[in-house]
Amino acid sequence: MKGQNKLFIAIIIALILGVGIGGIVHVKYPESAEPFSKNIKLLGTVFIRLVQMIIAPLVFTTLVVGIAKMSDIKMIGRVGTKAMLWFISASLVSLFIGLILVNWLEPGHVTKLPIQDAAAAEDLLKSSKSFSLEDFVKHMIPKSLFEAFATNEVLQIVIFSIMFGVALANLGEEYSKPVVKLFDIIAHAILKMVGYIMWFAPFGVLGAIAAVVAMNGFEIFKVYAIYLRDFFFALAVLWLVLLLVGYLILGNRLFELLKRIKAPLLIAFSTTSSEAVFPKLVEELEKFGCNNRVVSFILPLGYSFNLDGSMMYMTFASIFIAQIYGIDMTLGQQITMLLVLMLTSKGIAGVPRASLVIIVATCSMFGIPPEGIALILPIDHFCDMGRSMTNVLGNALATSAVSKWEGQLENTPQEV
Fold first, then answer.
1. Measured in Å, how far apart are the chain's first and last C-alpha atoms?
2. At 154, which helix (H) or strand (E)?
3. Where are the domains of the chain?
4. What is the DSSP letter of 141?
5. Averages of pLDDT over each 10 residues, the chain, 416 residues
6. pTM, entire model
7. What architecture (CATH level 2) is domain 1-406?
């Protein structure tokens, strides 16, 4: 645990330094804020790209090995069913929490925001118009494995890996053993790389935070104080529900899990990328005692279907925009919106700023001005910090819970 604690402390220090450096640049050298932000953000970009470099091969090798070793097709179906039941339940709970709290707190009726120029949201408005069932199918089923690898389409890689793993499992050990052994070695080599890459995380955190503070300063928090307060209160309620369910399933081991994933949680919070911690999360969940076959099967699926923080934000932000424009939605309309979000959000995992794209599409569908997304764009980075961290927590709990239900959770932590 010593190395893990050192990394956690280094990230905390980087976070504080990033806020301090960004604040100084914004206050003392405002004319240099834009070039400074552009250059220091490269530290974050380097870290994210280092992680993205190993996600596709890690998902592919671990998932193929996990399924091939299961050999029992019934077990694959059972684990997949339990995982999907968790994902659907968690998504509905997250959406409902966002819906209930935004109606109770009414941040849109209290917050006084200047109407932003819709040009800032032009790219998002264009993205939302192209979303359709056809795009969902194309996004899910790979045209080429190499294209899926090149674009880091996790869901497409998962689909191919499951089919390839099942095929290997049915070939018989004589044929499959050398291939499974090779992929197992590659997976462990990649996990070894994770350890090296994670030591660059503090620099990535410093760059990402310093860039956004240098550009926005601290004044933005005053303008959006009510919106941020209410959103993070809603996130806290969601955390409470998730942790309560986690405690009912894992008991006191929940606290051990939280200690294990504290560094991934902080990295996701600082870099606004749950993808950035995927390899580290695989490693920590296996060390926690989750069966590596279950981890390699459920975690990639969770990154596509179990984004609890993003789900809650979708209902919260959509109703907030309606409140700003003085649009009163009936309970029936809001429930319909919730169900629409439940379905459409599953189709664009991995799309940049996916939550915002879905919010724009949903607003258009329900007669809410879609250009209202420009109202929350200035503060979206800070909301994304909370969303990303919550997504990581939700997936760690889902994987641990299914491992426990399958009787595949070791009581003593493993070393990977």
1. 13
2. helix 154-171
3. 1-406
4. S
5. 73 91 91 91 88 87 82 76 91 92 86 54 54 65 87 82 86 84 90 86 89 84 86 96 95 93 91 85 91 85 85 90 86 87 63 70 82 81 90 94 87 59
6. 0.82
7. Orthogonal Bundle (1.10)
